[in-house]
Specification:
This protein has 2 helices and 8 strands. With 135 residues, the chain is α+β, with helices and mostly antiparallel strands. The radius of gyration is 24 Å and the shape is globular.
Length: 135
Amino acid sequence: MRFKSTLAVIATAGLLAGSATAPTFAKSPEEPGAKPQRQCFWTRQVNSFASNDDRIVNIRVGVRDVYQLQMFGRCHDIDWSNSIAIRSRGSSYICTGLDAEIIAPTSIGPQRCAVQSIRKLSEAEAKALPKHARP
């Protein structure tokens, strides 16, 4: 019985010590040094793609969103492909480059290209893309 009461005193002291510290608040997005909010999309929402080099693929998600996918290495002839597939790892919700893989057809079979990073483009950035890179 004495063990239970000692344990209760220790637990209560721990709670009181934890509540005595000053609360910490997360930084708001407007504050400098705050992390940008993650921008994710579902693979089923991808409508089209375009690329004018073998390291970057731009995809249109929904009606107006454009995301830029940067590969770890070269994805040969992705800029000449008529179709691609975006495979997600884990779920069909993609937030980071490690969540996605691009599969492009080639004459010797499918080519798998690992995605390094994903970034949502602003409307101005999407409009400024070269004609062949605009999805």
